[in-house]
Amino acid sequence: MSRRSISLLKNLRNITNGSKIQTRSVTYMPRPGDGKPRPVTLIPGDGVGPLVTNAVEQVMEAMHAPVYFEPFEVHGDMKSLPEGLLDSIKKNKVCLKGGLKTPLPVGGGVSSLNVSLRKELDLFASLVNCFNLPGLASRHENVDIVVIRENTEGEYAGLEHEVVPGVVESLKVITKFCSERIAKYAFEYAYLNNRKKVTAVHKANIMKLADGLFLESCQEVAKKYPSIAYNEIIVDNCCMQLVARPEQFDVMVTPNLYGNLVANTAAGIAGGTGVMPGGNVGAEYAVFEQGASAGNVGKDTTEEQKNANPVALLLSSAMMLRHLQFPSFADRLETAVKRVISEGKCRTEDLGGNSTTQEVVNAVIANLD
């Protein structure tokens, strides 16, 4: 055998034996000009919102990510969305958002700007990914649940009135159109992300017409995806099963109110609302924010001590980067965050540590590849 043949054989053995030869997979083929920085509308929000959105800004700058932010001052006690905000989101197609407080009025008052934003932009699908993070202790293992919630109708339709003094009527609206499109989104998500099962959450045993219509729509869509298992569960049993055996769930599709409750329950099981990413998406626009909403504006002491957990919004911004077709930046950010969580040296109070938001940000930046 010639020396050239022997050399080639040695190289082949090195490759097959796993030597230090770096390989990269092609994640997507960019179009010319895809590396141009993209504008993203930014809503810092209330409470700890400015703190955690600033954390994202710092990490994006450290990565030299191809995005830049257009900030808007928005607060939950405003009577309406500020002028120019919707135009900015419609132009940029993408928004990153901190928490907005929703006042709790007695007998009427300011409506939720969170709901207004979703309705104005027709962000009909809310997505929350609840999963175990290596190194973060939780009661259950193998949790990786995606809750996809209809975002524009149901109990959040906002159709309420006082019939007579002391009697309030609140209308729950369920339509065939909205039920079908959220079901289609859930099954399409499962199909594109190699998920194996979609579970529809309902209360059709009591609300036979409204939730019955939602179930019928899910059943019709399920027939078009024979490779994906489909089942149904009543919402009260769903909550019990989530607490007892959450690993049985994969993708869950829900009407509006149930999804809000289910997503926060799943988040609490998997590690807390401070680490679960999410976003709201429609046909044209997307708004990324902390996935589970409970306490998303933080306590006053958290704001004062500047120790809010930025992980949820950092992971949501990674989802945003992937949405913008910057997968390598998303991977770098997710990997850095998971390293910090796994090491356990730098954690905020809600995760059992005593680190500040800035210390977590510094640790994430230090772990960027």
Automatic annotation (TrEMBL):
GO molecular function (one): metal ion binding
Record-linked InterPro entries: Isocitrate_DH_NAD, IsoPropMal-DH-like_dom
Ranges where the Isopropylmalate dehydrogenase-like domain occurs: 39-364
Gene Ontology CC entries for this record: mitochondrion
Gene3D superfamilies per record: Isopropylmalate Dehydrogenase
Sequence intervals crossing the membrane: none
Family: Belongs to the isocitrate and isopropylmalate dehydrogenases family.
The name this protein goes by in its record: Isopropylmalate dehydrogenase-like domain-containing protein
